[in-house]
């Protein structure tokens, strides 16, 4: 299973000596040769030498012609491995470690990373029985429709085969209410597919604007100045409600126009039936 911890939690586990004042090495109560360090950290001597060449792993202490590594090297090596396993590049890992060693306040990193990685919804996935899912829709959904819902990641079948993981119960309940009015479930899925495509395109363009006009002063391969990190975190947090308000307002406008266009004539005819001509 993919590690979903934040890099800061990884740091806290493997390098608790890192704090807001800088880096303090752990007690050097054990020495390793490069082969011993590779075995202990589940790495390779080739990786260790490569990390040293890139400057993200300090060189060993020389005793005569032989180099010895400490617990600080072990902690750093495990930290690098965990961050790489989570998809971070060596360049990013190096920038993060260098920033910490320069004494940048970890709270600034916590703020910006929390803003980036925190869920953008208060909903959590819910596991329900397949039988309960069918009951919600009054048994009006076919296996093919469930397959489409899975392709859209609205639901995912659990390993036991008798239950599903629902990403958003709000969406599912809204769908059930609409199906109860007579709208086919598969038609609703087509609407969700179209909606997702449009929303993802808008979200991408909005984030692109932030990247081009707000983050452009910073070089791609370097970390922003530490005094700018809190401002960047605040900006990301502000994006959340602003994006929601914009989408909600535009959806309301579009629904109003669509309702007037498609339902206006029918409503007018219904009103005429209330007062038939004499």
Automatic annotation (TrEMBL):
Keyword Ribonucleoprotein assigned: no
Domain HTH merR-type: 31-99
InterPro entries per UniProt: DNA-bd_dom_put_sf (IPR009061), MerR-type_HTH_dom (IPR000551), MerR_fam (IPR047057)
Molecular function terms, GO-annotated: DNA binding; DNA-binding transcription factor activity
Keywords of this entry: DNA-binding
Matching Gene3D superfamilies: 1.10.1660.10
Protein's name in the database: MerR family transcriptional regulator
Organism of this sequence: Alkalimarinus sediminis
Organism phylogeny: Bacteria, Pseudomonadati, Pseudomonadota, Gammaproteobacteria, Alteromonadales
